[in-house]
Amino acid sequence: MSFNLKKWALPIFLGVVSGSITNFLWGYAPFLPKLWEHIGPVWWFVLPITFSIIFIVLGYIHGAETRKEPLIAVGYRRPINVLDKGEVNKFDVKWEMIWGYSTRFPMPYDKPYAYIEGPFCPVCGTELDGAEKSKLFGWIIQRVWHCATCDKDYKRPTKYLYREEDAVKRIAEAKFKAKRK
């Protein structure tokens, strides 16, 4: 077992720096010790608001407002209460679609959602892996899905690169909603 100096030195250094800053503030800002006397009785109210403000500020600093993405990422899991299943061939590969609820007994306000699994090989049904193929002496890189069983490659779309599942999800939602009407 080797000793990694950087692994141990950085936390010690940060501890010394944060301790120095704290001692400086407590010593040269006489209002800080009395600040807790005012916040103490309502800490249950002040703390969540403080964390929310920090969370929102960090989200804006990170640039979430320009990408139109939510600050909190919510991932859907495979539905427990399955209403319908189906398959779709999109981008020359097979995708499995499941329409349902995330709970066994949905509440009136719950909405069913589409869950996508894949991509799968259209020949043998094996789940495909993402890979890169280099062409023209490595100057051009083509992104593909690779089937380990068939040893076949399927070209990934350039328009929906890394967002293929979103495009298939929109198709699935349209199919399931049309089927329910």
Brief summary:
By secondary structure, the protein is α+β, with helices and mostly antiparallel strands.
Top keywords for this entry?
3-stranded antiparallel beta sheet; 24% strand; 181 residues; alpha+beta; 6 strands; 2 domains
Question: Can you walk through the features of this model?
Answer:
This protein is α+β, with helices and mostly antiparallel strands. It folds into two domains: 8-67, no CATH class; 81-180, no CATH class. It is built from five helices and six strands. It has a three-stranded antiparallel beta sheet, covered by helices on one side. A three-stranded antiparallel beta sheet has the order 4-5-6, with no helix packed on it. β4 and β5 form a beta hairpin.
